[in-house]
UniProtKB/TrEMBL annotation:
<dbReference type="Pfam" id="PF00155">
    <property type="entry name" value="Aminotran_1_2"/>
</dbReference>
<dbReference type="InterPro" id="IPR036390">
    <property type="entry name" value="WH_DNA-bd_sf"/>
</dbReference>
<protein>
    <submittedName>
        <fullName>PLP-dependent aminotransferase family protein</fullName>
    </submittedName>
</protein>
<dbReference type="GO" id="GO:0030170">
    <property type="term" value="F:pyridoxal phosphate binding"/>
</dbReference>
<keyword id="KW-0805">Transcription regulation</keyword>
<keyword id="KW-0808">Transferase</keyword>
<keyword id="KW-0804">Transcription</keyword>
<keyword id="KW-0032">Aminotransferase</keyword>
<dbReference type="GO" id="GO:0003677">
    <property type="term" value="F:DNA binding"/>
</dbReference>
<dbReference type="GO" id="GO:0003700">
    <property type="term" value="F:DNA-binding transcription factor activity"/>
</dbReference>
<dbReference type="InterPro" id="IPR036388">
    <property type="entry name" value="WH-like_DNA-bd_sf"/>
</dbReference>
<keyword id="KW-0663">Pyridoxal phosphate</keyword>
<dbReference type="InterPro" id="IPR015421">
    <property type="entry name" value="PyrdxlP-dep_Trfase_major"/>
</dbReference>
<feature type="domain" description="HTH gntR-type">
    <location>
        <begin position="17"/>
        <end position="85"/>
    </location>
</feature>
<keyword id="KW-0238">DNA-binding</keyword>
<dbReference type="InterPro" id="IPR051446">
    <property type="entry name" value="HTH_trans_reg/aminotransferase"/>
</dbReference>
<dbReference type="GO" id="GO:0008483">
    <property type="term" value="F:transaminase activity"/>
</dbReference>
Length: 486
């Protein structure tokens, strides 16, 4: 930026436009779009002519034009410069597309699910953790150590940094009972890349892929990008209704599930269903993708074994992430699966981004292996337990009109409304009073079977939860009483 040497000038000898005009036009454009800022030095006409393979007269004529237009100025004895008194230039921007291009298609035509923010409002946003429990001192110490080494000059291993893979394998053995070693772990750019790589590795257009309904819309869209036919499977208080999975020739090739904290209803897949899902997968030779996105947070409930800990046939691909336990901005997740499947995933990962960023992997490796992740989880659990208690207490008066689900784990809950109450109406009235909640509509295929609100509380302060739940109680009570007197 800022030197003509960096700005490619292309000349078309057969063009109707003369060579000086072509040169002047390209320099003018570089000045106007900011690539050549005011005051930049331009090469001498002799050097320019030589670089472009034209006669000096051609270069002189181009500069004369730009001079006459005021874009450039000569400084006596010191050369030619972009004029320093040009008016402020528009910011450089990519050229807009000026026609309806044939290639501009939307392969997955589903609207975005996130309700727009409301300035000053209280948003019970799903998937939002808090960084308050993170020790800044620890974070700074780990990063300064990472920063003291130069990054490798070449690419690193596609499967991920060996130290981080070992640290995650240790963490999963200890905390989740998932049997794996460092070689069974692949580091990804978040859980969603793991799901994308698995989908690409396994599915072809027309294959069937089962998903929870309601479920995680991003995973649903990712599966759709493969051209697979989606098979929605209903969810109840015990999680995915395994008995609704198609059997025989219609059995899906892949099933995506969130057993520890169903997204979005918040329920846990019962042990009986876990076993029957594994049995179903074995019988139909299908792959289970287990998304364990926020299992670190469990409250007053015994841990249930992940499917990956119960699997004996290599039919579960286990996906985890640092997005909830730390922050989604790190963009680091991981995947544990049979070596045969990982081999395919790794070949695709190489095509996607080669590997996840080295410094971030290094910092996380230290964070996990030095016990800092465990300490952070302990502190975060206490914080979220308080937030969860405030949510439950704040919503207590609404019992009768609504019922809370999914508080045993994770960072969000589902408030099911009594029959006759519309979740969309409650959400709209709450929004008018500054409180943002999602309804199941965005998470369901077709009309949701239940009416209710999704309440992410991980990222909210206690007073925000208290104020937000008060608004919800008011709105639901008003609507409930109006409904009752109808
Ligand atoms: C079900 C589920 N899986 C995974 C994630 C996290 O994905 P990532 O690791 O790509 O940030 C989320 C985040 O909202 C989620 O809801």
């Amino acid at each position: 930026m800022g030197s003509l040497a960096d700005i490619p000038i292309r000349l078309e000898r057969g063009s109707e436009q003369s060579l000086p005009r072509q040169i002047a036009a390209q320099i003018r454009r570089a000045i106007l779009d900011g690539r050549l800022p005011p005051g930049s030095r331009l090469p001498s006409t002799r050097a320019l002519a030589q670089a472009l393979g034209v006669s000096r007269n051609v270069a002189l004529a181009a500069y004369d034009d730009l001079h006459a237009e005021g874009y450039i100025e000569g400084r006596h004895g010191s050369g030619t410069y972009v004029a320093s008194d040009l008016p402020p230039l528009p910011r450089p921007a990519a050229p807009p597309l000026r026609h309806k291009a044939r290639w501009l298609r939307d392969p997955v035509a589903i609207p975005e699910a996130v309700p727009a923010d409301l300035p000053g409002g209280i948003a019970f946003r799903l998937g939002q953790p808090s960084l308050a429990p993170l020790s800044r001192e620890t974070w700074r110490r780990i990063w300064s150590r990472v920063a003291s080494d130069l990054p490798p000059a070449g690419y690193g291993p596609v499967e991920g940094d060996p130290q981080l893979r070992a640290a995650i394998a240790g963490h999963l053995n200890r905390t989740r009972g998932v049997p794996c070693g460092p070689d069974d772990v692949v580091i990804t750019a978040g859980a969603i890349q793991a799901v994308m790589l698995l989908a690409r590795a396994v599915l072809q257009p027309g294959d069937r892929a089962a998903i929870e309904d309601p479920g995680y819309p991003t995973a649903r869209r990712v599966l759709m990008t493969t051209g697979a036919a989606l098979v929605p499977v209903p969810v109840d208080h015990d999680g995915l209704r395994v008995e609704c999975l198609p059997t025989g020739r219609n059995a899906p090739l892949l099933v995506y599930v969130t057993p520890s904290h169903q997204y979005p209803l918040g329920v846990r897949l019962s042990v009986a269903r876990r076993l029957s899902l594994l049995e179903w997968a074995r019988e139909h030779d299908s792959l289970i993708v287990e998304d364990d996105y926020d299992s670190e947070f469990r409250f007053d409930a015994p841990p249930l074994p992940p499917l990956a800990a119960l699997d004996e046939h290599g039919q579960v691909a286990y996906v985890g992430t640092f997005s909830k336990v730390l922050t989604p901005s790190l963009r680091v997740g991981y995947l544990v699966a049979s070596r045969a499947l990982l081999d395919r995933v790794v070949r695709l990962k190489r095509l996607a981004d080669y590997h996840t960023s080295w410094p971030v992997q290094r910092a996380l490796a230290a964070f996990v292996s030095e016990g800092e992740l465990d300490r952070h989880i302990q502190r975060a659990r206490r914080l979220y337990a308080e937030r969860r208690r405030t949510l439950r207490e704040g919503l207590a008066p609404v019992i009768g009109w609504a019922r809370l689900w999914g508080l045993e784990a994770g960072l969000h809950a589902f408030l099911e409304l009594a029959p006759g109450l519309s979740a969309v109406r409650v959400a709209a009235l709450a929004r008018a009073r500054g409180v943002i909640v999602s309804t199941l509509d965005d998470f369901s295929i077709g009309e949701p079977e239940r009416q209710g609100l999704l309440l992410g509380y991980g990222g909210l302060e206690l007073d925000e939860i208290a104020r937000g739940t008060q608004v919800l109680v008011d709105v639901i009570t008003e609507l409930g009483e109006a409904h009752a007197t109808k």
